[in-house]
Amino acid sequence: MAEHWDHESIFIKVPDQFRFKPNLEYLQRDKNEMMYEIEDEKITRVVVIDDVRTLVQISSPDNHKLFVRFLAGDQPESDKIRAAVIDYIRDWFDLDTDLAPFYEIAQNDPMLGPLIGEYYGLRIVGMPDLFEALCWGVLGQQINLRFAYTLKRQFVEKFGDAFEYKGKRYWVFPSYKKIAKLSARDMADIKMTGRKSEYIIGIARLMAIGELTKEKLLELNDFKEIEKALIKIRGIGPWTANYVLVRSLRYPAAFPIADVGLQNALKILKGMDRKPTKEEILKMAVPWKGWEAYATFYLWRVSYSNK
């Protein structure tokens, strides 16, 4: 899984169907993203494992395997934390999913085929932290992507922590433990609705008492059952549930069919003068069965490219 190089760095082996550059391009889709910094084709971010914060820099000189440096003299002291950091990075880039079956399906699909050629090696760059994924899903409801990033920045800067290194600040997403203690009034100066504030605090409180955890959701072992469990939570509808299933829980058959980016991409590729209906999307998606999440992720690239 990983090949140690020295005490300050490590190589992470990757699948054959992985290329660093398309994933790097995806991560640069909005300048307001603040959970990592990208400079000179190197990603720098804080990884939090059991309250231990590690500043890492990820690059790929050969566009294949990942080279990870531990910065600030911050290499994990224990093998357990070191292994967990590696697992986090593998999860972030979805490196344990075998894309060969998806590529076999996609290369024969008139819409997906060209996208596979252009973005070969792109993985579903995820959000391993469930609370962050749920917050992002709530923040993004019924607004455009750019404004969602603005809200995320305001939320993180007000309630998150920063790791300072060489004059720069690297942010840590607010913990559900901290947000659970707040009231909607505490979020009043963030430009989101009071209802969204209530949703996020409610989710944080469920996580704080252990009622909502990533482990409990995954134990259901069926994405439809997980979808049902998530939709029972106030503020989470089908779109948010499926977004979390795609980005954090890693179910390839999850399908955020109401996603505006997906609808716009299909409209563009089909040359339609309107967004396709749910029934039309379901019909288009028949060949992608079992891989709807990856099909959606590649189709999103069309929306980003046509901003």
Per CATH, the class of the domain at 130-247 reads: Mainly Alpha
Helix-strand pattern: EEHEEEEHHHHHEEHHHHHHHH
Shape: globular
What is the count of β-strands? 8
Structural class: alpha+beta
Helical percentage: 40-55%
CATH fold call of the domain at 130-247:
Endonuclease III, domain 1
Sheet having the most strands? 6 strands, antiparallel
Question: What is the correct CATH architecture of the domain at 130-247?
Answer: Orthogonal Bundle
Termini separation: 38 Å
The radius of gyration over CA amounts to 19 Å
Number of continuous helical runs: 14
What spatial order of strands do you see in the largest sheet?
A: 1-2-6-5-4-3
Strand content: 5-15%
- Mean pLDDT figure: 92
Uncertain stretches of 5 or more adjacent residues:
none
CATH superfamily of the domain at 130-247: Hypothetical protein, domain 2
Overview of the molecule:
The structure is a single chain. The chain has 307 residues and is an alpha+beta fold. Among the domains are: 2-96, TATA-Binding Protein (2-Layer Sandwich), CATH 3.30.310; 130-247, Endonuclease III, domain 1. It has 14 helices and eight strands. It has helices at 20-27, 79-92, 100-106, 112-119, 130-139, 145-159, 176-179, 194-208, 214-219, 223-231, 238-247, 260-270, 278-284, 292-305; strands at residues 2-6, 9-12, 37-39, 42-49, 52-59, 66-70, 161-165, 168-172. Strands 1-2-6-5-4-3 form a six-stranded antiparallel sheet, with helices on one face. Strands 7-8 form a two-stranded antiparallel ribbon. Strand 4 and strand 5 (52-59) form a beta hairpin.
